[in-house]
Amino acid sequence: MKVGIYAISFPFFLCAAVAADDTAAPEVAGMQPVMISLEEREAPSDEEWDALHDDTQRAGLFGSLGDLKSQTISFMDTQYFTSNSAEGTLASYGKMSGKNKFDRYGHIQNIEFDLPKNSWKERYALNAAALVKLTGKARFMEFAGVELDAAAQDRRQIEVTFMGTMAPKDEVIRRLNEDFEALDYLATLYERHAKHDKKTVKLLAGPAPPEPKIVLANVIMLDGKSRKLVEGSLGGQAESVLHGVGGGLKFSKSGGESISLLTPVVRCYRTYSIEFKTKANGNLDRVVKTDSKGQSRSVPVVFDLSPDL
Q1: CB distance 3 to 252 below 8 Å
Q2: Residue 91: left (phi > 0), alpha (psi -120 to 50), or beta?
Q3: Which of 67, 163, 298, 301 could cross-link with 286 by S-S, CB 3.0 to 4.6 Å?
């Protein structure tokens, strides 16, 4: 299965997810969030599930997917950001402020790669309080199958699948060097930040400008239908294509049939810093290329991306 990430108009992505930030997430009165990994165990029994809700001293969630308060969490031995998680869609580019909140500007065009070879999945059992923090009230029923009040009242156990995906760095760099709009935006941020770093009196220079960033990896939450489709159980996997892992999902089966799925909820993401080719004086080394309109443009060259965590 190959995944393709294509440019989609920015407003479409505004509904991509609700950040798992306590200041923005809705609460369920009297219920603490519960998230339990089901990778190495069976789903909790009714008795255990009730006990988990009554135990306010639950341990083992700090820094993990189940920690809804941490600004960084660990998944498959990799650290991710959670702040502003709705922005952290795969193959997106933008800037990061001093508070480690990524602000997406757009998506690198035409990235394609094999999804199964670059992703992994974990099943979790969630209660209503945990799920609504990830989906928001507007999308809660899409994942739970019932209204929030009903799920909270009967302490419903809701199973979801988290999928972590890492877009291949070489493919991202190749496509980024062909995306002139993205290069122009990122180079502008890079040069502003570099100019600030050269100032000798930092106190007079003011706060550093935001740094340009790329999201190469994230963890999204899939509902049951999306999970089955990703795993190829709906057939047509030999010719299947998944478009826009960070935004809308569209599965193309053999014979031309396609199925559109929910926009996945982004749980967390990992940003990468950009290393441009530079001259001896530190200025960007630019090359002349021809754009899609046949016009010559001077653009910088990205030669590496370095993980921030």
Answers
A1: no
A2: left
A3: 298
Return d(Cα 279, Cα 153) in angstroms, integer.
63
Q: What are phi and psi of 245, to 5 degrees?
A: -60, -30
Segments of the chain with pLDDT less than 50: 6-24, 59-60, 233-247
Least Cα distance to 163 among 90, 63, 103 occurs for: 90
Domain regions of the chain by residue span: 2-168+212-273
Q: Which amino acid is at 121?
A: K
Q: The tokens of 102 are what? A: 């990524």
Residue range 9-44, pLDDT digits in tens? 222 222 233 333 433 456 788 898 999 999 899 999
161, β-bridge pairs:
123, 222
Evaluate whether 271 touches 105 at the Cβ level (below 8 Å).
no
Residue 70 makes CB contacts below 8 A (sequence gap 6+) with: 62, 63, 82
> Measured in Å, how far apart are the chain's first and last C-alpha atoms?
28
Question: Tens digit of pLDDT for each residue in 90-113?
Answer: 889 999 987 789 999 998 888 877
- The model's pTM is 0.84
User: How are beta strands 250-252 and 258-260 bridged, if at all?
Assistant: antiparallel
Length of the chain: 309
